[in-house]
Amino acid sequence: MPDSLPSDSVGLVSPKTIHFDKPLELACGQTLESYDLVVETYGKLNADASNAVLICHALSGHHHAAGYHSLDDRKPGWWDSCIGPGKPIDTNRFFVVSLNNLGGCHGSTGPNSNNPETGKPYGPDFPVVTVADWVASQARLADHLGIQQWAAVVGGSLGGMQALQWSLDYPDRLRHSVVIASTPRLTAQNIAFNEVARQAITSDREFFEGRYYDENLVPKRGLMLARMVGHITYLSDASMGEKFGRELREEAYKFGFDAEFQVESYLRYQGERFSETFDANTYLLMTRALDYFDPAYDFGGDLSKALAPAQCEYLVLSFSTDWRFSPARSEEMVNAMISARKRVSYAEIDAPWGHDAFLIPTPRYTDIFTAYMDRVAREVGA
Amino acid sequence: MRADLEIIQQWVRPGHHILDLGCGDGTLLDFLQRERNATGFGLEINPDHITTCMGRGVRVIEQNLDTQGLDNFDDGMFDIVLMTQALQAVRRPDKVIDEMLRVGREGIVTFPNFAHWRLRWGLALSGRMPESDALPYKWYNTPNIRLCTFKDFEALCRQKGIKIKSRRVVDGQHQNSWLARLWPNLLGEIAIYRITREST
């Protein structure tokens, strides 16, 4: 917990739940008759509502992107390094909107919410939502907030996919799309890792086909394993090496199978913490949304054709040691944008932290992000 | 206004789609975007330059010409491909010129003249590798690994069947000088060439 709030923090914030009554048709064919979205906002919307920035979260993210909920919080929001007064997404200039996506487990309607038809949690009956579904729900949120056009839609990883999807589905409703450490589609290897994670969850004896709420149980071990395997893909070999090396917790080998290496105990700790705060069904949904994302699919795999409707300007950023969504994946996206005659800027940032680098403020990352967003702010008169 | 910008902008039509190879801090593209409503990209590898470009609204792609080439650009997608003061710093200038005229209808190339009298004089007198305002480096740390003279460049164009549409010669401060026009390969420090493969 901070003794006092840092001056570049958005300070104490509190989430708000917004209820939507207009049914939302989903890509899977089902319809959500009504739903809630939990939202945090930072900064002030200007008179012509031109300074709004939408933050899209990644797999395990949520609405709490910046600031503190109370002075007792151990840590600020998940992207506090980039959102706040004087930070790249400067809350003195921008009105920042951050939400928990549909299917999430932090307050927006999802598998652990009550299904109005049964009065019990949806569980496995919650429809499999896609990136396009999220974007559609975010557009409803924009309507609700009186935002006709975002100055920018910004996201890392799965959040970057949403920023890209926005530019295709609502071309005139955003000026800039900022796509960080992302990819236009998952590779077989990416899907394979997701499958291992899902198998870990669904094969947990306490999963009960997704109806574990009714049993008052949680597939904790499965979720923990899923997170452990995921977490490995977020780091780089070099950063794990630097952080843990082959360091042992005690001095000598014990010739057993407990966590003897530091890296083992770190992963177990991360997995356990995660399994206490995250919902297993949401994890399944989020990984599926990742797998399905492929805007080029309907265009014979030609991403530049899929990009045809886009009007916004793009900023694409990748990180040198990210092997989950490598720089080559970002370059694929950039090349399609060039081919489609779109406005795009691209940089590959040298950073040792693998995929997680998008959450860590390195000088070059911060400089580029700040310079670009400063220009966006000037453009909209913020 | 810098004389080279003045000269180059005369060759750019409103709305032209432009690629600037080694765009630096984006000064030229920014100028052409504002003055000529041009669109397009700069390619650059210097991190500080890339940041400056992004801050001023010049679209910039981090891409290394030597290792990545221009494979990601379609044939004829640009009206003009620019390369100012960078030709002498790439590994294979001949291939870069081919690629420029593949992705663009027209190329504009500027580079320092290694046959300028001061460089000739310096080498002849001191027997040391020449240095000048346009070439301020030592032989061992210079990024300029493929220096050539105006005559060399023109010979390469002839050999490749590339047409030189215009050539303007300026001094190290990018100023026009009548002496340089009179005897370019000896008195010109920097040349601005406008080249094409198209017959018209």
From TrEMBL, chain A:
GO terms under cellular component: cytoplasm
Positions bound to substrate: 227, 356
Protein's pathway: Amino-acid biosynthesis; L-methionine biosynthesis via de novo pathway; O-succinyl-L-homoserine from L-homoserine: step 1/1
Catalytic activity as recorded in UniProt: L-homoserine + succinyl-CoA = O-succinyl-L-homoserine + CoA
Cellular localization per UniProt: Cytoplasm
Keyword Protease: no
Gene Ontology biological-process annotations: homoserine metabolic process; methionine biosynthetic process
EC number: 2.3.1.46
Database matches in HAMAP family: MetX_acyltransf
Similarity-based family: Belongs to the AB hydrolase superfamily. MetX family.
Protein name: Homoserine O-succinyltransferase
Organism lineage: Bacteria, Pseudomonadati, Pseudomonadota, Gammaproteobacteria, Pseudomonadales
From TrEMBL, chain B:
Domain of life of the organism encoding this protein: Bacteria
NCBIfam families for the chain: metW (TIGR02081)
Protein name: Methionine biosynthesis protein MetW
Organism per entry: Marinobacter nauticus
Name of the gene this protein is made from: metW
